[in-house]
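REQUEST FORM: STRUCTURE PREDICTION
Request ID: SP-0412
Submitted by: Lab K.M.
Chain count: 1
Length (residues): 236
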Amino acid sequence: MIDFCRGKRVYPVGINFSDRPESIGLGNDRGDAAPLALLFKMQFRNGGYGVENIVPGGFVGESVLIDFLAMGPRRERNRQQFAYDVYGRFGLGFATDIRTRAIAALRNQSRVRFHGGGNKVNYRQFLREVARSRVCIDLPGNGPFCFRLVDYLAVGACVISPPHAVTMPTPLVDRTHIVYTRPDMSDLVDLCERYVNNDAAREAVMEASRDYYRNHLYWRSLSDYYLRTMLDRLPA
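STATUS: Completed
RESULT:
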């Protein structure tokens, strides 16, 4: 909860970071946004909520130091000295079915080299591995958006993902900022092979993903969006 003060008026504003798209309360899933002048909802459901005071809240990376920690991996990514074709590390405690299916599909083929799986590494090593990968796989975790997605975009990765059930304030555009598979991921390996082998298409997505992060998810950009939204919607 924050108080947004404008003139003599004080507006209660909430930021909901629950992983559950259906949760629109504060502190528990049974609450609602009615008492609030404005609610920024991370994991904002596609199609919205039919309530004017609930707006998309964006998303954040795993670490508050992401911009500092990603500087070296960004430079390494620019050199395009790749060690891996396709990369993804996922704990199997969340979204177990979809993560297990994706890992199995990538391991049980010989068209691209897959690095990763169900074993996690420390955050710095993770960012370095992202930088050395032609393509990175995003999968849902406890919610549709995962910290991993923002980390990928911060480094500047070509991200392939099943379609997200939630949206950012400025939506990610398929084949521009990200590459979406079919909902059942039946074309996951096909898309990985295409972007591993098509340098121009892959690097275009990389450039756009990095620009998207800088313009929309970098901490100053995201805070500017919050402030602009409050100024536009909450009169003095």
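NOTES: The chain has a mean pLDDT of 94.
Reviewed by: T.R.
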